[in-house]
Design goal:
Shape: globular
CATH class: Mainly Beta
Strand order of the largest sheet: 1-9-8-4-3-2
Structural class: mainly beta
Organism: Staphylococcus rostri
Oligomer: single chain
Helix content: under 10%
CATH superfamily: Rieske [2Fe-2S] iron-sulphur domain
Radius of gyration: 13 Å
Bound molecules: FE2/S2 (inorganic) cluster
Order of helices and strands: EEEEEEEEE
Pfam families: Rieske_2
Number of helices: 0
GO molecular function: 2 iron, 2 sulfur cluster binding; metal ion binding; monooxygenase activity; nitrite reductase [NAD(P)H] activity; oxidoreductase activity, acting on paired donors, with incorporation or reduction of molecular oxygen
Strand content: 35-45%
Distance between the termini: 13 Å
CATH architecture: 3-layer Sandwich
Keywords: 2Fe-2S, Iron, Iron-sulfur, Metal-binding, Nitrate assimilation, Oxidoreductase
GO biological process, one term: nitrate assimilation
């Protein structure tokens, strides 16, 4: 069985609502997003279309729009919305004492 690995990636003070932040863990680029309701989403930061950096995209509701060609990705599921297709990996996030951890 693959054991999830919990990695500290940021402090809450580094996150701004609706502004993505890119963190790098091992060989993965992860986009962190602080949502309006205070939840934090983590997805693979690399757009499945042509590698756009999702952390630089515009957040609206629970979606992020890729900064390169505006594909719309659901931050809850990682699924690219129609008419485009594809998906990015999503990761579980835990906050302990204002430190943000991502489970890989
Ligand atoms: S690279 Fe993201 S929409 Fe094209």
């Amino acid at each position: 069985m693959h054991m999830a690995q919990k990695v500290k990636v940021a402090h809450m003070s580094e996150l701004e609502p609706l502004i993505g932040k890119k963190v790098i863990v091992e060989d993965k680029q992860i986009g962190l997003f602080l949502m309006e309701d205070g939840a934090i989403k983590a997805v693979n930061n690399v757009c499945p279309h042509k590698q756009g950096p999702l952390s630089e995209g515009t957040v609206s509701g629970h979606y992020v729009y890729c900064p390169l060609h505006d594909q719309k990705i659901d931050l809850n599921t990682g699924i690219v919305q129609e008419p485009d297709e594809g998906c990015v990996e999503t990761y579980e996030v835990e906050v302990i004492d204002d430190e943000v951890y991502v489970c890989l």
